[in-house]
Amino acid sequence: MDLYAEDGAAEVARLLALGTTRTDWRYGPEADDVVLADPDGNNFCVIQKEAQWFPLRSEQH
What we know:
InterPro entries: Glyas_Bleomycin-R_OHBP_Dase, Glyoxalase_6. It comes from Deinococcus arenicola. Residues 1-47 form the Glyoxalase-like domain. With 61 residues, the chain is of the alpha+beta class. It has a single domain, classed as Roll (2,3-Dihydroxybiphenyl 1,2-Dioxygenase, domain 1), CATH 3.10.180. Helices cover 26% and strands 28% of the residues. It is built from two helices and four strands, in the order βαβββα. The chain starts with a strand and ends with a helix.
């Protein structure tokens, strides 16, 4: 599962506070994602995306 976030850093911080953990992962130099693990050990990505990826939220601003 991947999660796309307008503010990736804030989303990662929120998920870490809820009990996820950082996964040891080899990131490329321009990585726009962070790999986390849920409490059961399942890996997932939080991916930073620009506002245009969120048309409904962009229209509300």
